[in-house]
Design brief:
78 residues, GMP Synthetase, Chain A, domain 3, 3 helices, 26% strand
C-alpha cells in the first residue's frame, strides 16, 4: 500500500481532519500516521488507536500493512 493510498484512506475516514503519513522504511508497509480529527473527541488513546487500526483491518491481516505508529489529536488540540 503506497503512502498516498494510506493518506487517502485516512482522509476518507477522517474527512473533517488533518492527516500526515510517513513511510518509515521505504518498503510501503511500515507507517507513521498523525491524524487530528474531531471524531476522536471523548475517546481514550486506546479507543482512538483501535478506530484507526480498523481503517486498515484487512491490510493488517494480510500483511500489506505490517506496522502503524499512530498519533491522534482532536482538531482543537492540533
Amino acid at each position: 500500500m503506497t503512502p498516498q493510498e494510506v493518506k487517502e484512506r485516512l482522509q476518507n475516514a477522517y474527512s473533517d481532519g488533518y492527516v500526515d503519513v510517513t513511510d518509515l522504511t521505504g518498503g510501503e508497509d511500515h507507517y507513521s500516521v498523525y491524524i487530528a480529527s474531531n471524531v476522536f473527541q471523548g475517546m481514550s488513546r486506546i479507543q482512538r488507536h483501535k478506530h484507526v487500526m480498523n481503517v486498515f483491518a484487512e491490510e493488517l491481516k494480510t500483511g500489506e500493512v505490517h506496522a502503524l505508529t499512530i498519533r491522534t489529536d482532536t482538531k482543537e488540540n492540533r
